[in-house]
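writing this on my phone so excuse typos. first protein, seq and then structure
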Amino acid sequence: MSGERIAKLSVIGIAAGAFSALFGVGGGTVIVPLLVIWLAFGERQATATSLCAIVIIGGFAAAGQALYGNVNPGQALLLAGPAIIGVMLGVALQQRISERLVSFLFAALLTGIAVELIV
């Protein structure tokens, strides 16, 4: 792996970690787009790589937030169970639609969220 590629992955990781800790987002909004744009990943590979990284990033972010008393483990578990079902459904759907449609749907989602936050 080239030094430039390692440097880009490091920058993406730092940005994702900062966004995860500040806003609770990082994988979808930072890692996936940058892997696609900077490193020419396909949508599926970028999503899968992001999800793998977020397991580690999320663990550290949650631990840091727990130190400040901001974590409710019971409610987190109540979110996690149904989320696992959602993940299985989402992965199955993503494998059946084109990567171009995945990109379009993702862009539409981010645009909708941005509009909602502004309004």
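second protein below, same order as before
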Amino acid sequence: MKFTVFGKERIEKLLLIHILGTLEALKNKKITINESETNIFTPYTFFTLEKKGVNEKIIDLIHEGCELEDVEFLCPDKLDKVIEELKQRTLILLDKYEEDNKQIWVQIDDVK
């Protein structure tokens, strides 16, 4: 499946929504850290977004999401707190984007 998103601010806002949903799913044990690492929290993702000029704070969130497995292994009692802190930072960033309901943001191609 291929998603096409039009506009840098829309891409950033959609990334934040995706990060927030991933963190909420992790918090509620609906996905594993492994799944989050194949979904959004990957070095490939943050390196690619960095090259594209995406907001550095979003890249930082993704980078820190890549470290959740380390937190789980080294300090499992702190995992929920770290996830919550990442969620709060994501919400703060998301708040900086204005409502955009003028047209459809995403085009979906190649659904099989």
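Residues 8-27 form the longest helix (20 residues). thats all i got for now
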